[in-house]
Write a structure and sequence with these properties.
Shape: globular
Distance between the termini: 27 Å
Radius of gyration: 20 Å
Number of strands: 14
Structural class: alpha/beta
Length: about 325
């Protein structure tokens, strides 16, 4: 058995539709030691995954903070892109923890923004960030997540969002072709149907690519210059830029836009371009407004895990803080 922490410890996790990343940390979430990542769909339940993650780890966590690719609105959590359904009580039973926190994965990313270092991000659109204005965090992975931060009297607060399910609106002939392709299959065409891993596959197929080609293969082919794959990722990047701009306008995100998720770091050759920047700023009368909004890509793969750990501070009571102050 491996003893990761000398003092009482906590479990943090970033659980998406594809990967589940777990880590052990101190109760304030400051020092995180990542455990080997797991494939979400390899496990039937959250309890099975937690059991596998903690196999060989000595002891049990006192607290748990899970970042989840799902709406966190009721007693039961259902992952949007994986067949898991569970409650806070299920997590308590699986871990033995006395305090459990479940939060949306992009709310967790909002918690990590103050902790990001210079080498954790790449700036696509330079601008002057307003430190008192809201920021937007969004990004494609298995799905399309979105959240924001606002400054309140109680300090910075992270707000959950299901903005990824906003309706996709075509603005060009190729996007209209894509919309028709998706409409025939799903009826409502959300942004997530386009700006996600499944979206990459849908774009590729809509433009004549072989059905069943994976998003990873399409991205790799685009990097190698294959024409259809390159067209696919170019459309994907354009729609992502437009969605990011819409979210920035809606929330007044003069603090900046941060692109998370697993896909963006892999398609930087299509994001760090004048075409992306033009698509982001091309908003008619509001183009000047957006010209000052910085856009960054979060490159750190462990950002969600670090955010879930940072959110452990929300579980601390005044008594906890007094104890830490005197320790």
């Amino acid at each position: 058995m491996t003893k990761y922490m000398e003092k009482p410890w906590a479990l943090a996790a970033d659980i998406g539709g594809t990967k589940a990343r777990f880590g052990v940390c101190d109760l304030e979430g400051r020092q995180v030691r990542a455990l080997p990542p797991l494939q979400t769909r390899a496990f039937r339940s959250i309890g099975d995954a937690i059991g596998a993650a903690l196999q060989g780890v000595e002891g049990r966590p006192e607290r748990v903070s899970l970042a989840l690719a799902a709406p966190v609105t009721g007693n039961t959590i259902e992952l949007t892109n994986a067949d898991w359904s569970f409650t806070e009580a299920d997590v308590e039973k699986a871990t033995g923890a006395s305090r459990v926190q479940l939060l949306n994965d992009f709310v967790a990313l909002a918690h990590v923004l103050p902790l990001l270092k210079a080498d954790d991000i790449v700036t696509l659109c330079p601008g002057e960030s307003d430190p008192d204005a809201p920021s937007v965090i969004l990004g494609p992975g298995t799905g399309l997540g979105a959240s924001s931060t606002i400054n309140t009297k109680a300090g910075w607060q992270a707000l959950a969002s299901e903005g990824g399910h906003m309706t996709f609106g075509a603005t060009s002939e190729d996007e209209w072709q894509l919309h028709q392709h998706l409409f025939q299959r799903h009826g409502h065409v959300s942004m997530e149907r386009v700006v996600s891993g499944a979206g990459i596959e849908a774009i590729f197929t809509a433009f004549g690519g072989a059905p069943g080609t994976t998003a990873a293969d399409i991205v790799q082919s685009a990097q190698e210059g294959e024409a259809l794959a390159d067209r696919t990722i170019s459309v994907f990047a354009r729609v992502l830029a437009r969605f990011a701009a819409d979210m920035a306008l809606m929330l007044g995100a003069r603090g900046g836009v941060y692109l998370g998720g697993g896909i963006c770091p892999r398609i930087m050759t299509h994001l760090d371009t004048d075409a992306f920047r033009e698509a982001f700023r091309q908003k008619g009368r509001m183009s000047d407004y957006l010209s000052g909004v910085p856009v960054h890509v979060i490159m750190a793969r462990d950002a969600g895990l670090r955010g879930a750990a940072a959110a452990l501070a929300d579980l601390m009571t005044d008594a906890d803080r007094a104890g830490f102050a005197h320790s």
